[in-house]
Amino acid sequence: MPEETKDSTSAIDKESIVEGEGEGEVKVKKTEVSHSGLIDDAASEDEGEEGEEGEAEGSGLGSGSGSGDSSEEDEDEDEDEEAIRKVREGFIVDDDDEDEEGEGEEGVVRRRKHKKRKHAAAGTAEELDEDDLELLRENAGESPSGVVEKSKFKRLKRGADEATEVNGHTKGLTEMFSDEENEEAGSEEAEDDLLEATRERQQRAGMPGEFDDFIEDDELSEDDEDRDERLARMRSARVKNNFAQESQIDQDKMDELYEIFGDGEEYAWALEAEHADIANKEGETVEGEGEDETEEQQVEYDEEGNIISTKPKTSSKDLKDVFEYEELKEHLLTDEDQKIRETDAPERYQLLRQGIVNYDLSDAEFVLKQQWIADKLYEEKAASFQDQKSIWDPFKDAVFHVVEFIARDNLEVPTIWNCRKDYTLHTYHEDDQLRVQKLLNENDLWRVVQLDIEYHALLDKRAGVKKLFESLHVVDPLYDEFVESAKTIAELQDLYDYINFTFSTLLREEHEKQVDSDPEKHKKKLHSRYNVFERIKADPVYDVVKAMGMTADHFGENVSSNTKLYVTEDPEKKPEELIQDAIAKGSRFRTEEKALSSVKHVFSEELSHNPKLRTHLRLAYQNYATVDIELTEKGRVEIGEKSPYADFKYAVNRAMESFTYQPDLFLRMLEAESLGLVHVHIGLKNAYQGFVDHLFTFLSSDGTSDVSNAWNTLRKQCLDLALGKLLPSVALGIKEKLGRDSRRLLFFEVRDRFLDKVDQAPYHPLPEAKGTIPRVLAMSNGDGKRDAAVLAVAMDYDGSVVENVKFEENFREAEFEKKFIALVSRFQPEVIAISGYTPEVSYFFKHVQELVKLNRLVVDSDAAKTNDDYQPDADSNEEPQSTSLPVIYVPNETARVFEHSERAKEEFGDKPRVAKFCIGLARYVQSPLLEYIALGDAITSVSVHKHQDLLTDERFRQAVQTIFVDMSCLVGVKINEAVRSEHLALMVQYIAGLGPRKAAGIIKGIEGTGGAIVRRDDLILKGITTKNVFMNCAPFLELPVPDRYDKDVELLDGTRIHPEDYELARKMASDALDLTDEDRQEIEQEEGGVVGKLYEEGTEKLDDLLLEGYADQLEEHGHRKRATLEMIKEELQNNYEELRKSFHVLDAEEVFNILTSETKDSFQEGQLIPVIIQRVDNRYLSVVTQSGVRGNISRSSIVPYNDPTNLLARYNIGQPVQAVIKSIEYADFRAELSLMREDVVNARRGMKVDRFKGLWDFEAEDADLRREQESEKIGSNETKRFIKHPFFRNFNAQQAEDYLASRENGDFVIRPSSRGPGHLTITWKLDNQLFQHIDVVEHEKLNDFTLGRVLQVGEFRYHDLDELIVSHMNKMHSKVDAMKSYEKFRNEPANDARSWLVRYSKANKNRSCYCFCFNHKAPGWFYLLFKLNDDTDKTYTWNVKVVPTGYQLHGNVYPDMVHLCNGFKKLLQNQLGGGNAGYGYGY
């Protein structure tokens, strides 16, 4: 046997199974297995051995039972020494081929007896020699041994293959989901008795054992196939559980993975076919089987030649071998995710640094990095410092330290802010007083993290430029000066272009050398756009360029220094004469014009490629350029008063710095430009000519002769040509930079706005209980309609739903009051939270307030104190007074997302939608931060900033997540509770140093150590996390102080103090107690130590400490701890004090905006808005807005005084009108409006636009206004049409849509058509904000004002409007409803439906993959989206039209959805079968 096989594993003892006589009694005993016994019992024992040993040994020993025929049983019992020798060479004799059809207890007993007989036979065989064995075979009528051995070895080879399938990775496809490796049998010291008992229990219950399905019959009956399929399913379930236990992946995530993507069994047929082919091929070979067998399996023997282990050589298959990469990426199961889990660095930093090859820099390079970041950050913050000169040095020092903390110490922002805050402050003495100036805030620290990544992008660009230049082996002073001084990627790009232009010939020659040396590697031909200039430089005409008197490099030096360092000298001859000389020398340019043109172009190129000139132009544009808006024809029409771009429609002369204070303005300009509405121009305008003249002074000569004038003219033409090439690219670069800066500023604006949302503690009515989680009763009646039921959810301190009540009565009834009072008395809430979907909820809110007041319901302060989180205010000595039970409005944005989320379905799937909404409200009251975190990716649907859409979703999520990190670390996480609560565990990922991967690892690690940790350092001692991660997360993982002190408990773990500062805290406690070193050492040996002693005697003693002197001493030793000492004192006096702001109770205006979805811009006094008349009285009009705000228009605001107009005759119910808001009553959701002409004329129709002289193009605005007025004269004298019908309205298209916006789907109006008197239009509401305008052609009209006798819609003809409504509109509506209620319909945009279709097809490969959705571009049509069964993500689209008789698809009409789907499948099948590829357009 080869030595490498013997050395594969160490020798171990074997286990033999000793059978008891009692039924199901199994006893495991360790013995030394003899070599011969091992041979004889190799197959028989495998079926009885316990599972773990089977995995270690079964590869070689138990595989023999995988295949065979019972007729060979006698051969297996009579094995000879030749068989033993073959086994030693790697073969395994297959002994046990017993028929396994009986699965009951009798079958088990029969197998055991059979094994005992084999043991006896083995002993007999051991005593016989070769001749005796041969004689026995002849007497038994068997074939000669050579023949037997030959056939037997062929079967053994097949058995070995099956063993590979059994114990290797291919024994079942579900094994792909397990990360278990084959281990040595001796290393698995499991509870064998328990495992064996478990196996027998599984067999009695009909479950498969470890090797039950390894014996296969040659021909399987249908029952056997069903049985195998059933056993495979149960085995798959067991493998899934084993994988989840052994891996670091949460069970919930694994369940979700298997549920969505399956367990991979759909691939089993392919793998089985593959292994069958391999087995068949190997089975054909008889000779040389021993060598092949050795290659297939790794068999190891002990010193006596006994087999001690056998392992199959199998290729490992991971999740990536079964699932698509994108699917694994979505569930964080890729190799990169595993690497992030294992790397000792903050997860967020690892993600940011992906793609950076050489992140760790040398000391010299690191200093350059620190300097660059300090310069960039100071440039952005300089305006915020008053004394900019004196602040630079301390600012630079602060930035240097922060960069080191981030880049080398791998500390996240909250850790720096909490534990290294002193380095962000400037402390100095002035007038004998200590002064502290804040240099950096949390936004600045996050900005340093961004700049750190940006700097490495700069390094990569610089490395690319260096590599290009060094390949040329030349020297260039400009390169040497510029390559290290370049501060931006744009400057390095300038240098890159300069090298390519200046040394284009060398670059081409170098490439040709590489092609000659290695043609295969450098097949691609180098194409250079500078070839024409190379030819000019080699031509005699280039002498004219050399005679310019000033090189491009010298000109760049003059410009950058703003001094004429180099003087221009004129040649003796004019340019024309030198050109003639060049032509005479044989120039390829035969005419003076062409030669002169070539001179201009080559010199202008040299000027335009000079890096210093480019840098100067870029700097000039940044400082002096202005932004102007030029309207396109499309923009002139589409940008109206209500457009989001109206405030810059005629903007001119906007300075660059003006966008610093309004970053969204420039981003909206870019957005409008991308839509083709405007052109954004950046230029110097009137200053341009002066700027060019100033540049020319550095290029021109001072001579006044004709020769000098001729040369200066040529130089000026070359400069103009160069600037013409440069300035557009410079302006584009400035536009891109301004866009980046604006997005950066908007990013931090979003951060600040979102901080206001989450920086609030849980609500509590008792001031002394700030930070305590309340008991909440959340109530809502949904949309507030009359028949809407009231639902209430009672949520306890721990977030559990104690009670869920549905009030069947109207909330105004007495029975409701009784049930409500009973609920409050029973639950004893500390706050009642109310919200809803519409302003109608306000009536319910006011009624509950009245009930609380009338019944004098109060908060039970004693019950509040029973809360474990109750923390009374240490400064309050007064007894708490009884507080009236508060009734508050709660923001509904998180609850609206939660009620429709998968999370709500999983947790509360049996509860109605409004109940889920109430649960979301209650959770918000208990922890606003946690509810926003729980939204996940749906956080993008939350309104944070009115211009947040200008950021990408990814950038917006980054801004929000950085706030989550800051606030989660400010609050801290009770880690042991997070292990037990999935809801609270969502917060762990935002603790410093962690992320979703590492947070899951910590929680799983704590679960594996008993479900809780006692000390913070357990995270390190128990191997739950690593050093750098621990240094980040430790102070933010709270372990509450126990009531009784214990030596195993560290009291400081219940504070925000970092473990590295524990010694400082103990020192402060010792000094406060006036302890000597000996006393302190003695007390430290007691339970609680010196900190516990301080808690017992009172933490107020810390107020007597002089922390300033202590801080000075520490600074002398190089430790800045002034702010840290103050924090330690605060934590010792009030550990984990609530630092967030109090819960923000909404005011009336905020409630108004939440329930109406209006904003200050859309609903304010003086605003012109559309309203719908609900009631007409001769004294007033009652109206309602689209958002549900009720309004009143008094007669005095409709017609002038003494005007006798009858309002009943002028206005109709349901009529839309434009009204001006005069006043708003936010609490009552009402408004006073006006229809007076002067009010309408002066009303604001959109956003407020500032029109300042010099910044607004009034002339262009007036010109466009005159043009618009002229175009509106058409039709001003036409008589409006009127038809007597209840559905007729004299609306235009926009008015019809406004009217139908607040009505039910399916409603419609009949209105005049813009096509003329021979047409009508029916505007029909299909869905929210989706309207179809149906053209009705009138035939047989008596005149223009009468209704036609025949009305035609497409091919359908009707005799009056009523018939049209019944036979056309009603049927169309029913067809649309049927489509919307069909299971394959997706009520979402087409792009979202396509994305869903792709995901669905990957998860359900055996199901039909198609769906329907609205065609928003053509209302009345639907998209039929489908995906073919291929590996691409390409989807195809057909169009379905709704008609009264059904659904029209490819000219065929189908009466219902079932027929439509069947027809679609037949059409698709026919087109595919016919080879027609044009069955739809793909995406």
Automatic annotation (TrEMBL):
Skewed-composition ranges (Basic residues): 110-120
Q: Where is the composition biased (Acidic residues)?
A: 42-56, 70-82, 92-106, 177-195, 210-227, 285-304
| Domain SH2: residue ranges | 1286-1368
| This protein's GO CC annotations | chromosome; transcription elongation factor complex
Regions annotated as coiled coil? 1122-1149
Cite the GO molecular-function annotations of the record.
Answer: DNA binding; histone binding; nucleosome binding
For bias kind Basic and acidic residues, which ranges apply?
Answer: 1-17, 24-33
Q: Where is the S1 motif domain?
A: 1166-1236
Q: Where is the composition biased (Gly residues)?
A: 57-67
Checking SUPFAM superfamilies in the record gives: Nucleic acid-binding proteins (SSF50249), Ribonuclease H-like (SSF53098), RuvA domain 2-like (SSF47781), SH2 domain (SSF55550), Tex N-terminal region-like (SSF158832)
Provide the protein name: Transcription elongation factor Spt6
